[in-house]
Design a protein that fits this description.
The chain has 16 helices and 13 strands. It has 412 residues and is an alpha/beta fold. It folds into 2 domains: 128 residues, Aspartate Aminotransferase, domain 1; 234 residues, Type I PLP-dependent aspartate aminotransferase-like (Major domain) (Aspartate Aminotransferase, domain 2). The strands form 3 sheets. The protein has a 7-stranded mixed β-sheet with strand order 3-9-8-7-6-4-5, sandwiched between helices. A 3-stranded mixed β-sheet has the order 1-2-11. It has a 3-stranded antiparallel β-sheet with strand order 10-13-12, covered by helices on one side. β4, α7 and β5 form a beta-alpha-beta unit. The radius of gyration is 23 Å and the shape is globular. 46% of the residues are buried. Bound molecules: pyridoxal-5'-phosphate. Pyridoxal-5'-phosphate binds next to α6.
């Protein structure tokens, strides 16, 4: 049996057509490697948390996860997931509108609406799907989508799937946004689309000014809260809380894969007719499976935890302030941020890779980014803080930064 399977695989790989395609892929992959853009994965054998265990037994402090509130290994979420699985089973084997909606899916939609103070919510398998499925059902060729140039890939893809006219404004640049709004004035409807927090600089979109312009030029507003929900605002409720913009933002999208527990799942939340239309026409909702009961159950527990106390957000905010202050006083060049993303500027691409590699040797996982992920000459190390980090973790990370920074002559 085994032999015949092997034979079959060999005969497939020997097909002439694959031979030329294989060569093409090998060349492309080689060029990705040569450009230094090849992505290697680290195999973790522990739960996701501040201190992780790697295959082979090594330990590392993790400063590159989106686990902002430290909920990824929270015992209450694990229990809630187990309980939901016991009571509601493992999977749904259906899309929502055929036979894939349970009571807990509706309860979760309500919990998300309550959290964001919106009218209704629709769940997706991921925020990538929420963004992929939000534009096409709502807008057509008579309309305009005005998108920040640093918006997430899933927004860019979602916009591509829609026939609306596309306008792009420079990152968080309100003068440029106003220009684009003027250009789009003849369109039937206009929508401004922005990330709440931009993942490379950690800067927060100026929602108050975006909403002012939206009102001046009669546009709708959409914000992707993936990196901002649970993080920005006095109690972490995102950009509407931060800028006092409740009622002025029409559509929020977000993920359950970052601050809210870090598993999978996404949502669009906002005005009720918008959500109602998405339930009728949004393709990733109509043609993709319901999120499993354990995710719905655990996510419900997440919102329960966040409604009971602000302790996790408070700890995150404390950690961000502590880390930034220590790094600034050590002489590092840090982008200003109100989020949990801290960009340590190195400017040089090669240095950023060397720095990240040396940090890993010191047992600290951070990510080095350079062109084309960030603009040319803007290479940096991105540090992501979490409520899971304890003071000793932060001190170790800062000490490693200082050691490597001196070694590589980044600081004196
Ligand atoms: C992470 C992220 C997403 C994707 O979220 P998933 O739920 O993992 O698909 C979408 N938008 C932004 C801004 C993100 O940061």
């Amino acid at each position: 049996m085994e032999k015949s399977i092997n034979l079959k695989i060999e005969s497939i790989t020997q097909k002439a057509m694959y031979g030329s395609f294989q060569k093409h892929l090998q060349d492309e992959i080689a060029s990705i490697r040569e450009a230094g853009l090849y992505k290697n994965e680290r195999n973790i054998v522990s739960p996701q948390t501040a201190e992780i265990t790697l295959e082979g037994g090594g330990k590392a402090l993790n400063f590159c996860a989106n686990n902002y509130l430290g909920l990824a290994d929270n015992p209450r979420l694990i229990k809630a997931a187990e309980k939901a699985m016991e009571n509601r089973g493992y999977g749904m084997s259906s899309v929502r509108f055929i036979c894939g909606t349970q009571d807990i899916h509706k309860e979760l939609e309500k919990a998300v609406s309550d959290y964001f103070k919106t009218e209704d919510t629709i769940l997706y398998a991921a925020c990538f799907d929420a963004n992929g499925g939000v534009f096409e059902p709502l807008f057509s060729s008579e309309d305009a989508i005005i998108s920040d140039s640093l918006n997430h890939a899933s927004i860019i893809d979602g916009v591509r799937l829609c026939k609306a006219q596309r306008f792009r404004y420079a990152n968080a640049d309100m003068a440029d946004l106003e220009e684009k709004l003027k250009e789009a004035q003849s369109c039937r409807f206009r929508i401004i689309v922005t990330d709440g927090v931009f993942s490379m600089d950690g800067n927060v979109a100026p929602m108050d000014r975006i909403c002012d312009l939206a009102e001046k030029y009669d546009a709708l507003v959409m914000v992707d809260e993936s990196h901002s929900a649970g993080v920005v605002g006095p109690t972490g409720h995102g950009v509407a809380e931060q800028f006092g913009c409740y009622g002025r933002i029409d559509i929020f999208t977000g993920t359950l894969g970052k601050a809210f527990g870090g598993a999978v799942g996404g949502f669009t939340t906002g005005r009720k007719e918008i959500i109602e239309m998405l339930r009728q026409r949004s393709r990733p909702y109509l043609f993709s499976n319901s999120i499993p009961p354990m995710i719905a159950g655990a996510a419900l527990e997440t919102f329960k935890i966040l409604s009971e106390s602000n302790a996790l957000h408070d700890r995150l905010a404390e950690n961000v302030t502590y880390f930034r202050e220590k790094m600034l006083s050590a002489g590092f060049d840090i982008k200003p941020t109100q989020s949990a993303i801290c960009a340590v500027m190195l400017y040089d691409a090669k240095l950023s890779q060397e720095f990240a590699a040396r940090m890993a040797e010191e047992g600290i996982f951070v990510t080095g980014f350079y062109y084309p992920v960030v603009p040319k000459g803007q290479a940096r190390i991105r540090v992501q803080l979490s409520a899971a980090h304890r003071r000793e973790h932060l001190d170790k990370a800062v000490a490693a930064f200082i050691k490597v920074g001196k070694e590589l002559k980044v600081i004196a």
